């Protein structure tokens, strides 16, 4: 009798405690989560990311940045994929303005459409975004890393929660490190993740204050190699009239996931002020130097840090849902 009561108490405690536990810990992700429920998951993901990247080579960078932003604003829970409605301004519409190009959203929607046909109501948008990102990193030449599965999709997405959660190029290194360290990422992991800027591009307004009228004595920030700054001024000459003008983050090998980003920095070929800052700050420079010299070291560090990023703030159990469409809540 007493024993049965004890079991009841323990059970009800577990039920009460469990939702909190599932938010705090990351243990509820599994390597082969969809093996039974969606056996073709890996194949469908692979086909979708490969086809999309071939047709639109900007997809990899777009998706990687989208994933980073999704994860850093309240966890890797696909909250960044929600479209605003007349009743709710969602995260993606706060997102540092123009940015977040459509290809990142599009690859997720394509995969979701194919997966809903194969195994309806089973695969979360958060898992799709995490795996699409990994596949696209590999497809552009970057390292493979394991992505555990079983994330649920967020039940909220508010534009107001974005500010302060994402790094911006004009932030000091103190401010940038605070954003990463407060989420449990080390300085080394911060530098490794920033190596994502080995692919993709930035709009002129993100670095214009560093190349035009920088100071009384100089058009550009002295951290920029002078001819590079001049080339950027030429490329961006018309950016006020044409705000879509943009420049590759890694001018040397823009579409290849490699360690060239780090090699560029000491040569003054970084694009954003925050890129230069990684090479100027004594806390981050040693890692820049290491990754510039040794691509294997960068790939290992990037893969580990991405694996960690992929579990950040995930929702499981009743703290989320499996969305029917990735851009809208079920209710
Ligand atoms: C360290 C602080 C960081 C700052 C200040 C920063 C800032 C930016 C800015 C301003 C852009 C250009 C956006 C645009 O003009 O459209 C950009 C692009 C990009 N960022 Fe970052 N970022 C940081 C870290 C990261 C991290 C950790 C990742 C991923 C792990 C990442 C991935 C990307 C990618 C892939 C692009 C290119 C996007 C595209 O081509 O569509 N960034 N970043
Ligand atoms: C960008 O953000 C600024 C300030 O947050 C805002 O005034 C402006 O309207 C935004 N631009 C676009 C295109 O959303
Ligand atoms: C730079 O400053 C000068 C003088 O203040 C101004 O005329 C010019 O328009 C500025 N150029 C840019 C690109 O902002
Ligand atoms: C490069 O980094 C890898 C991984 O950390 C390490 O095993 C290797 O010894 C390094 N190579 C050199 C030349 O330092």
Task: Characterize the biggest β-sheet.
Answer: 2 strands, antiparallel
Strand/helix succession: HHHHHHHEHHEHHHH
What oligomeric state do the depicted chains represent? single chain
CATH classification class of the largest domain? Mainly Alpha
Task: Determine the fraction of residues in helical runs and give it as a percent range.
Answer: 40-55%
Give me the Rg, rounded: 21 Å
Q: What is the level-2 CATH architecture name of the largest domain? A: Orthogonal Bundle
Which fold name fills CATH's third level, the topology of the largest domain? Peroxidase, domain 2
Inertia-based shape:
globular
> Counting H and I runs of at least 4 residues, what is the number of helices?
13
Name the strands of the widest sheet in spatial order. Answer: 1-2
Count of spatially separate domains:
2
Concise description?
With 331 residues, the chain is mainly α. The chain has helices at residues 2-24, 41-55, 59-72, 102-118, 125-139, 173-181, 187-194, 208-211, 226-236, 260-264, 273-280, 285-293, 295-309; strands at residues 201-203, 246-248.
